[in-house]
Amino acid sequence: MFLSRTPFPRFEIAAAALLLFAPVCGAAQEAGETVAAAAVSAAGVSPVLAAPRYTVNAGDELDVFVWGEERMQRQVLVQPDGTFAFPLAGTIKASGRNVSDIAAEVRQRISLNYRTAPPDVTVSVREATGMRFYVLGKVRSPGSFTSGIAPNVLQALSMAGGTADFADLGHAVILRQTPQGQIVEPVQLKRLLKGGRSLDPGNLAKPLPTLASGDVLVIP
Questions:
Q1: pTM above 0.70, yes or no
Q2: Which alpha helices (DSSP H) does the chain contain, by range?
Q3: What structural domains and CATH numbers belong to the chain?
């Protein structure tokens, strides 16, 4: 076999070295990222948290789409008991669940009618009218509101236009109806609305209270 004695051009040698070095760099970078993630975890610093997934409420309108089955596309209303009916699937419990879980149950139920793999099912919230809450008292725009997510107290307050003059932020409460009866949850808005003047940087020691469907936020 004939071997050429012609020296490699400098740029070819540099390219070859770069190719050999690249996997090492990638491994080092990956290891560095792992160590950094471990350090963040050890320091108690939380990574960016995903937004909470919306859970369906009675009164919500849903779009149910069965791929390839035009006759099975439906707009359904979640009934007061938290269910809806769907062809070949029967009665589906929707209240308190996210749309992915609902779609998976619909697909599993209709699969009994297919010899091959059942088509994919997509469920989406068309109108989140079931997520209705109320803000009353000394706010600029009291009333009922709907939301595509479960809002925290500050988000709910902003939807009501903020506080009005002489609002007693130290005695705000959430009224909530539960199967065991109505409960009252105190909310300390005074400190929250002062922002950086009263709050330490970093994670909140206690998460902001979140309103559920039917809750009433009262600002005296």
A1: no
A2: 10-42, 99-110, 153-159, 189-193
A3: 61-127 (3.30.1950.10), 132-219 (3.10.560.10)
Q: Token pair for residue 215?
A: 């809750």
Other Cβ atoms within 10 Å of 114 Cβ, number: 11
| Residue pointed to by tokens 């107290």 | 153
At 166 the three-state DSSP class reads: coil
- 150 half-sphere exposure, CB direction, 13 A CA radius: 17
What are the backbone dihedrals phi and psi of residue 165, each rounded to the nearest 5 degrees, phi first?
-65, 145
Q: If you search the block for the tokens 């008991």, which residue do you land on?
A: 81
Quote the tokens at residue 121.
């099912």
SS3 assignment, position 2: coil
The string of pLDDT tens digits covering residues 18-70 is 444 444 444 444 444 443 444 333 334 344 444 567 889 999 999 999 998 88
Structure tokens at 144: 């009922």
Distances in Å between the alpha carbon of 198 and those of 81, 190, 192?
Answer: 44, 9, 8
DSSP string computed for 93-122 = E-TTS-HHHHHHHHHHHHGGG-SSPPPPEE
Cα of 136 vs its chain's centroid, Å: 26
CA distance 154 to 74: 36
